[in-house]
Amino acid sequence: MAGEREGMGEVARRANGGQAHPSAPDRARRRQLRDEYKRAEREARAASLPMSREQLEALVEFVDALVISDGCDHTLRHTRSWVDGQGGLEWGAVAGGLAEFGGYCDCEVVMNCDPVDVFG
Ligand SMILES: [Zn+2]
Questions:
Q1: What is the chain's alpha carbon radius of gyration, rounded to the nearest angstrom?
Q2: Shortest CA distance to 105 belongs to which of 62, 61, 72?
Q3: Domain layout of the chain by residue ranges
């Protein structure tokens, strides 16, 4: 049976003239469009988070350590304590931006708001 399937595959390859599949450029184009769309979407969401990549890296590192030591109580208390300690960051805007990425509590901020996911 296995030999039969191999034989049919060979026929298909020959029928294709050994050329690349005709739709390959279309697939590449679709992939490119999808990547551009995802990048634009990510940039739009990143714009909703009013902090720099460096700040987000520091925030996630801070919150991660506290979630490990103190756990998550399903609020943004550790996130809030970092934001309040920064000065110049508006809590409501930061919380709204984090929510765009699924960061509704401290452990979700650590899991969902990785700077690589937010800023690419
Ligand atoms: Zn949590």
A1: 23
A2: 72
A3: 2-47, 53-119
- How confident is residue 117, by pLDDT bands cut at 50, 70 and 90? confident
**Ligand 1 centre from 29 Cα, in Å?**
39
Distance 106 CA to ligand 1 centre (A): 5
Q: Report pTM.
A: 0.70
pLDDT by residue (tens digit) across 21-49?
Answer: 667 889 999 999 999 998 898 888 888 89
Of 90, 86, 100, which Cα lies nearest the Cα of 109?
Answer: 100
Ligand 1: centre distance to CA 95 (Å): 14
Tell me, in angstroms, the distance from the centre of ligand 1 to residue 55's CA: 20
Alpha carbon of 97 to those of 15, 69, 80, 83: distances in Å?
Answer: 54, 25, 13, 13
Expressed in angstroms and rounded, the spacing between residue 33 Cα and the centre of ligand 1 is 35
